[in-house]
Amino acid sequence: MQWIMLLLAGISEITWAYFMKLSNGFTKVVPSITTLIFYVLSAVFLSLALKKLPLGTAYAMWTGFGIVGTSVLGILIYKETLNAAQIICIVLIVCGIVGLKIF
Q1: What is d(CA 42, CA 59) in angstroms, rounded to the nearest whole number?
Q2: Is residue 60 a contact partner of residue 103, using CB atoms and an 8 Å limit?
Q3: Cβ atoms within 10 A of the Cβ of 41, count?
Q4: Is the Cβ–Cβ distance between 13 and 73 less than 8 Å?
Q5: Is the pLDDT of residue 90 over 90?
Q6: d(Cα 90, Cα 75) in Å, to the nearest integer?
Q7: Whole-angstrom distance, CA of residue 15 vs CA of residue 35
Q8: Smallest Cα–Cα separation from 50: which of 12, 97, 3?
């Protein structure tokens, strides 16, 4: 159950970051409120995951989910580009997340 909470925390992390971009510096009401809601949800889910998971592992995975997820959203939605070094670094983050889960 703690892994599901951590996954939900990661999804919430990606969601609030996406809506923060849409909020245009918190000048648009609905995206701003959505940002705040998912920010709180992310913290709540992370805190629930931390009941059973080690802090270092959970926090590293949570931030990793956020980095990878927002990078993918940036590419898919905003047509952002990554160079080879950036792609390698993101792949290394994914490897780190998988490694933390396996070991």
Answers
A1: 12
A2: no
A3: 17
A4: no
A5: yes
A6: 13
A7: 7
A8: 3
- Name the nearest CA neighbour of 99 among 56, 70, 46, 69: 56
- Structure confidence by residue, pLDDT tens digits, 18-32: 999 999 999 999 999
Looking at the chain, which runs of residues are DSSP E strands? none
Is residue 13 within 8 Å of residue 62, measured between CB atoms? yes
| Mean pLDDT, residues 61-84 taken together | 95
Instruction: State the Rg of the chain over Cα.
Output: 14
Q: What is the pLDDT of residues 51-66, one digit of tens each?
A: 999 999 999 999 999 9
DSSP assignment of 45-61 equals HHHHHTTTS-HHHHHHH
CA dihedral 41, 47, 48, 53 (to 10 degrees): 140
In this structure, what token pair is assigned to residue 89?
């670094």
Where does the pLDDT of residue 94 fall: very low under 50, low under 70, confident under 90, or very high at 90 and above? Answer: very high
Beta-carbon neighbour count of residue 29 at 10 Å? 9
